[in-house]
Amino acid sequence: MAHPQETRDKLRRLYIFDQQPIEMAALQCNVPIGTARRWKSDALEDGDDWDKSRAAQTLAGGSMEELARQMLAGFLLQYQAAMEALNASDGEEKLTAMARVNMLASLADSYNKTVAASKRVLPETSQLATAMEVLQALAAFTRDHHPQHAAALLEVLEPFGKEVAKRFG
Questions:
Q1: What is the average pLDDT value for the chain, to the nearest integer?
Q2: What is the reported pLDDT for 58?
Q3: How confident is the model at residue 167 (pLDDT cuts 50, 70, 90)?
Q4: Which residues contact 41 (CB under 8 A, 6 or more apart)?
Q5: CA-CA distance, 82 to 97, in Å (whole number)?
């Protein structure tokens, strides 16, 4: 199916200026991911390097926090795609148990490193995660050691959780 030039231009703009991963840009333009990648490759052959333009745009206008959020979002999309591929490998592509274990270990390691790196760049993300963890620990402690107060704590924690999200999220 032929797509109008406006669709290619929109995809390029989403990728370069809005810093969307190519997969997300393709979805927003209603084109197959393979088509979006082909357009990017064709543009490169014609001297239009989308990656260089994207890097220049990032340096010129984006903050470090925006970049870190986009990188984390891009990683999570890739992580989800890898997990879906791993789950779908029961069909034609049979993977050995060891290959599955290695892939899962690699994904887990990459995920942990990416989250750790984002915590250094995005301290508010780390603060929110810590705050939520403390609230969960308090709820568990109350449930285990003071069960008679659990209902009252839940009544307070539910609206307070929204306040925590506003403050740190």
A1: 80
A2: 64
A3: confident
A4: none
A5: 16
Helix, strand or coil, per DSSP, at residue 39: helix
What would the two tokens of residue 128 be?
Answer: 């929110």
Rg (CA), the chain: 22
| Domain spans of the chain, in order of start | 1-62, 68-121, 124-168
Q: Which helix (H) or strand (E) holds 29?
A: helix 22-29
> CA-CA distance, 119 to 139, in Å (whole number)?
25
Q: What angle do CA 48, 73, 157 make, to 5 degrees?
A: 160
Q: What's the confidence (pLDDT) of residue 59?
A: 57
Closest to 21 (Cα-Cα) out of 82, 77, 90, 94: 77
What local confidence, expressed as pLDDT, does residue 80 receive? 81
Q: Judge contact between 54 and 16, C-beta under 8 A.
A: yes
Total length of the chain: 169
